[in-house]
Design a protein that fits this description.
Blueprint: H1 9-16, E1 24-29, E2 37-43, E3 46-52, H2 62-74, E4 92-94, E5 97-103, H3 115-132, H4 145-152, H5 156-162, H6 166-180, E6 187-190, E7 199-202, E8 205-209, E9 216-219, H7 220-231, H8 241-252, H9 259-290, H10 299-314
Antiparallel strand pairs: 1-2, 2-3, 3-5, 4-5, 6-9, 7-8
Helix pairs in contact: 3-7, 3-8, 4-6, 4-9, 6-9, 7-8, 7-9, 9-10
This protein binds adenosine-5'-triphosphate and L-homoserine.
Amino acid sequence: MAVYTDITDAELEAFLSEFDLGAPLVFKGIAEGIQNSNFLLETERGRFILTIYERGVAHEELPYFLNLLRWLAEHGFPSATPVADRHGQLLSSLRGKPAAIVGFLPGLSVRRPTVEHCREAGRGLAWLHQAGAGYPGRRANDLGQAAWAPMFEPLQAAAEGFKPGLAATIKSDLEVLARAWPKDLPSGVIHADLFPDNVFFQNGVFAAAIDFYFACDDFLAYDLAICLNAWCFEPDGSLNVTAARAMVAGYQSLRPLSAAEREALPVLAWGAAMRFFLSRLSDWGMAAAEGAFVRPKNPMEYERKLAVHRAAQGGGGLMLFGEAGQ
Ligand SMILES: Nc1ncnc2c1ncn2[C@@H]1O[C@H](COP(=O)(O)OP(=O)(O)OP(=O)(O)O)[C@@H](O)[C@H]1O
Ligand SMILES: N[C@@H](CCO)C(=O)O
């Protein structure tokens, strides 16, 4: 359960006295999530989410994320609007840790996305890219292509522990990816972690995106590649081509991809699988070392996705552009 910091009634009241939100009516911890402590807060003024930022997010980067949320909300995208305190500040402090209040978003995430959810998620991602255009904040992608090889160096033994021979396969993938990685594609603010648990739907329609704490500047099509991996694979490890085509078509219904983006998508998806394989492998080792009570995500799910992308390079690509007119 992701509530690492407990808050007493007195602490909450002192904290809320800095805001114009009225008295608290409901305050309870939210089990979902891994990185931060999240609470549902209901006051006389409405429903909110109070987040206490734990060590997973670099505190000096919080203004980038909170200002981005404000920018997106101001540009019509359904993400949580941060609530400023009486001094106009979006970032506060609670129990000596950074904390913020954002608006509560209606809707529910789905565990097993259908083809239509994938289409809607694609459309929502393109909407996010359009709304993010012009955001003045800058944040380099510290988990981008250049970071992967150094990240893997200390993880080779862990990879071998999962599957003998895997370290050599990953090294070879990293070399191919370094050579094939696009140099120049349309760039902007990307979410970089728009997995199904970070998207809310209402009546099957994209309703909101949450959890922007990996947002950064990178290729827009790389964000779509991350989503293809996260949404469009079957539990048996195969790519659901119908779902993937629907996602690409949903994306293109708002923001058509350029020829260069379309051509790059298979290698971007291979790289996106590498990024999550590596972060999961790293988190796996750390969780074991620290006896963490939140179960880490399985890196081998992404090892299977890597294998799908590797095989596709040799055999005609992923065939992601099958829907009529797309
Ligand atoms: N603005 C919001 N409106 C409604 N519910 C929210 C909102 N933000 C977060 N939640 C709820 O809180 C849960 C945890 O949020 P989130 O996924 O951001 O957690 P985290 O620990 O910060 O991130 P991560 O999942 O990457 O570890 C979500 O699954 C969702 O149920
Ligand atoms: N979405 C990431 C977890 C970090 O948010 C993963 O599935 O590995």
